Amino acid sequence: MEGKITILIVDDLKDNRLSIKIALKKENYNLAEAVNGQEAIEKCKEIKPDVILMDAIMPVMDGYDATKVIRTMEEFDRVPILMITALSDKNDMIKALECGVNDFITKPFDKHELIARCKSYAKFSQTNKQYILASKNPFTNLPNKLALIKDIKECQNPKLIIFAIKDYELIESFYSEEDARHIVEKFAQAIPSLTAKDCKDASLYQINDAEFALLKDDPDNIISADKSYKNCKEFLENIKKHIVYLDGYEYNIAIVLGYAINSNHVFENARIGLSHALKERKDIVFADEIVEQVRKEAKTNIKTIKMIKTALNDDKVVSYFQPLYNNKTKKIEKYESLVRIIDENGAVISPFFFLDISKKGRYYTHITQRVLRNSFKALKKTEKDISMNLSIVDIEDEFMKDCILDYCKNNQQLTQRVVFEFLEDEEFEDLDNITNFIKEVKKYGAKIAIDDFGSGYSSFERIMSFQPDILKIDGTLVKNIAENKFSKNIVETIQNFATKMDIKTVAEFVHNKEVFDIINEIGIDYTQGYYISEPKAEVK
Prior knowledge:
single chain, alpha/beta, Rossmann fold, Alpha-Beta Plaits, TIM Barrel, 3 domains, 8-stranded mixed barrel, 5-stranded parallel sheet, 21 helices
């Protein structure tokens, strides 16, 4: 019966088994019987007992040998075995303990002692079972992260590979969740046969749906970093050749992995290696080579986040304004609002040092709010247009999106001179969301610019979706235009296209007269860069 403790009584004498059953009758246990060690092993497989009461001397197979066999079965290596015996010799007891017996009850047994011992070990067994359930993946039955971390602590010199199935989310979305799980199960079954020769005795773990680990203890430290790399490379190549078959279909699995051989923080290091491999689109990363740099970056990030929080609290997130020069009228007609932080020492910090990190620390939209406020205040001080950058983070955040629309709605006269810039190469998961936003702000007279145009792969598709008023040509094309004929040809092509589409163009990163003359010769509408002016704290 489910929920009850099951106790297996193993004794060749029927009277002995009956005596134990009578003693435990009122304890509400499931009581099963076996007449020798061999039968006890079979009963274990059948009923999965919580506690085993084992006689020492029996025909066919005695209690010592039966205990040895049971301890080799992974599922029962933690099940408490109490030996009920009349043997009192110290050597017999040592032998029993060496076989895997947990405790002894001497014959003739005391009823109250038997009940107390059974209660104590039953509770212990239940705790063990809960641990086993918590430390195994329910679908593949592989030990999980909890088990891995425990086993690492028991290694003298652990070598660890952590690997993940590439694009598992695509597998889940393309197939059903159940199919994806079955594919992973089939792959998990094949992993031991795909490992390198040195890793055949490594333990396999499943950390999450698409992430696995191979752990090997190398007490003599004979597997070097180079050898580990070769093992990883062989493993990777074997997986590339392997095909998973499911319901008549073939599936190819690709993985990315990180490995660590340093015994200190080996799990954390290998995870850092895997994360770095995913981020840098590499197949293999040796974590021990990069972990110090990653930790230094983490410390820098923490320091930067602290600076951002302080700047937000002290109202030190400010806008600097860089002029855009009209090449036809020869006048400054627009500004771009560029965010800066004034740190505790009064230094002006460029967004290069904090903007990306602010996204990780979830402060990006707070910074955008300050830029909006600063920019609309500046619009009241000038008659010129002011542009400001928006990110996918801003538009996908409902609060931030509503905040931008409220600024536009409540300041419609000023909004006529607002330009919202979107990065050309930024990926939008919900294109309808961004196009609907653009339609809304255009109702209030705002213009749309595509920034860094020419840097991505979807330029013309983005133009069709956004219908921009302005194209800001990527600075990497502009700054080398005097030396690079290819860059010049691209800029000329963009300008010809923009002229036909009645879209204004801006050349960014114009840093000297030679570049300025070339972009004027091509016919670019506006110039932006240090040749015209660096960003200033005030507008005119």
